[in-house]
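Minutes, project check-in
Item: structure for the 120-residue chain
Input as provided by the requester:
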Amino acid sequence: MPLITVDYTDRLADCFDRRGFGLALNRLAVKLIDAKPEGCKTRFRRTEEAVIGADAETFALVAIDFEIFPGRNPQAKAALAEAVLAALPEYLGADPGAVQATVSIAETDRESYRSAAFGG
Protein backbone atom coordinates (compact mmCIF):
# COMPACT_ATOMS: atom_id res chain seq x y z
CA MET A 1 0.00 0.00 0.00
CA PRO A 2 -0.45 2.62 -1.42
CA LEU A 3 -2.26 1.78 -4.62
CA ILE A 4 -1.64 4.58 -7.10
CA THR A 5 -3.59 5.00 -10.34
CA VAL A 6 -2.61 7.52 -12.98
CA ASP A 7 -5.15 8.20 -15.71
CA TYR A 8 -3.80 10.22 -18.62
CA THR A 9 -5.25 11.32 -21.93
CA ASP A 10 -4.17 9.91 -25.24
CA ARG A 11 -2.43 13.10 -26.34
CA LEU A 12 0.32 12.48 -23.76
CA ALA A 13 1.01 8.88 -24.78
CA ASP A 14 4.19 9.62 -26.75
CA CYS A 15 5.72 12.21 -24.41
CA PHE A 16 4.80 11.00 -20.91
CA ASP A 17 7.64 9.17 -19.12
CA ARG A 18 5.28 6.89 -17.23
CA ARG A 19 7.91 4.58 -15.74
CA GLY A 20 9.97 7.50 -14.48
CA PHE A 21 6.91 9.18 -13.01
CA GLY A 22 5.73 5.93 -11.41
CA LEU A 23 9.09 5.50 -9.69
CA ALA A 24 8.97 9.13 -8.56
CA LEU A 25 5.46 8.62 -7.13
CA ASN A 26 6.60 5.57 -5.22
CA ARG A 27 9.60 7.46 -3.78
CA LEU A 28 7.39 10.37 -2.74
CA ALA A 29 4.99 8.00 -0.98
CA VAL A 30 7.88 6.45 0.93
CA LYS A 31 9.29 9.84 1.89
CA LEU A 32 6.11 11.75 2.72
CA ILE A 33 3.63 9.21 4.09
CA ASP A 34 6.03 6.55 5.35
CA ALA A 35 4.91 3.92 2.83
CA LYS A 36 6.97 0.76 2.49
CA PRO A 37 8.81 0.69 -0.88
CA GLU A 38 7.72 -2.87 -1.65
CA GLY A 39 4.10 -1.93 -0.96
CA CYS A 40 3.89 0.87 -3.53
CA LYS A 41 1.91 -0.21 -6.59
CA THR A 42 1.46 2.28 -9.43
CA ARG A 43 -0.55 1.63 -12.59
CA PHE A 44 -1.24 3.81 -15.61
CA ARG A 45 -4.45 3.92 -17.64
CA ARG A 46 -4.56 5.63 -21.01
CA THR A 47 -7.81 7.45 -21.81
CA GLU A 48 -8.87 8.54 -25.26
CA GLU A 49 -10.28 11.90 -24.31
CA ALA A 50 -11.25 14.12 -21.41
CA VAL A 51 -13.57 17.11 -21.53
CA ILE A 52 -12.71 19.87 -19.10
CA GLY A 53 -14.91 22.90 -18.57
CA ALA A 54 -17.46 24.33 -20.96
CA ASP A 55 -15.31 25.96 -23.63
CA ALA A 56 -13.65 24.59 -26.74
CA GLU A 57 -10.04 24.57 -25.49
CA THR A 58 -8.62 21.07 -25.37
CA PHE A 59 -6.54 20.10 -22.38
CA ALA A 60 -4.68 16.92 -21.73
CA LEU A 61 -5.55 15.49 -18.33
CA VAL A 62 -3.49 13.62 -15.76
CA ALA A 63 -5.57 12.39 -12.79
CA ILE A 64 -3.60 10.75 -9.99
CA ASP A 65 -5.42 8.77 -7.29
CA PHE A 66 -3.77 7.39 -4.16
CA GLU A 67 -5.46 4.77 -2.00
CA ILE A 68 -3.74 4.62 1.38
CA PHE A 69 -4.37 3.11 4.79
CA PRO A 70 -5.82 5.46 7.43
CA GLY A 71 -3.55 7.14 9.93
CA ARG A 72 -1.75 9.85 7.96
CA ASN A 73 -2.41 13.38 9.10
CA PRO A 74 -3.92 15.96 6.75
CA GLN A 75 -0.62 17.84 6.49
CA ALA A 76 1.23 14.74 5.25
CA LYS A 77 -1.47 14.04 2.67
CA ALA A 78 -1.43 17.67 1.49
CA ALA A 79 2.38 17.60 1.25
CA LEU A 80 2.18 14.45 -0.87
CA ALA A 81 -0.41 15.97 -3.21
CA GLU A 82 1.66 19.14 -3.64
CA ALA A 83 4.89 17.20 -4.25
CA VAL A 84 3.18 15.01 -6.87
CA LEU A 85 1.90 18.04 -8.79
CA ALA A 86 5.31 19.70 -8.55
CA ALA A 87 7.06 16.59 -9.91
CA LEU A 88 4.70 15.89 -12.82
CA PRO A 89 5.95 18.46 -15.40
CA GLU A 90 9.43 16.88 -15.40
CA TYR A 91 7.90 13.68 -16.84
CA LEU A 92 5.64 15.23 -19.50
CA GLY A 93 8.28 15.96 -22.12
CA ALA A 94 9.36 19.23 -23.70
CA ASP A 95 6.01 20.46 -25.05
CA PRO A 96 2.95 18.55 -23.84
CA GLY A 97 0.60 21.44 -24.60
CA ALA A 98 -2.08 22.52 -22.13
CA VAL A 99 -2.36 20.00 -19.29
CA GLN A 100 -4.59 19.93 -16.25
CA ALA A 101 -3.62 17.66 -13.37
CA THR A 102 -5.39 16.46 -10.25
CA VAL A 103 -4.32 14.49 -7.19
CA SER A 104 -6.75 12.73 -4.89
CA ILE A 105 -5.79 10.84 -1.74
CA ALA A 106 -8.39 8.49 -0.26
CA GLU A 107 -8.23 6.06 2.63
CA THR A 108 -9.08 2.39 2.21
CA ASP A 109 -10.14 -0.06 4.90
CA ARG A 110 -7.10 -1.89 6.27
CA GLU A 111 -9.20 -4.83 7.49
CA SER A 112 -10.57 -5.72 4.05
CA TYR A 113 -7.43 -5.08 1.97
CA ARG A 114 -5.40 -8.08 0.81
CA SER A 115 -2.31 -8.36 -1.37
CA ALA A 116 -0.39 -11.34 -2.75
CA ALA A 117 2.50 -12.04 -5.10
CA PHE A 118 2.57 -15.12 -7.34
CA GLY A 119 5.21 -16.84 -9.43
CA GLY A 120 8.84 -16.13 -9.36
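Outcome recorded: Residues 3-107 form a domain with the Macrophage Migration Inhibitory Factor fold (CATH 3.30.429.10).
No further action items on this chain.
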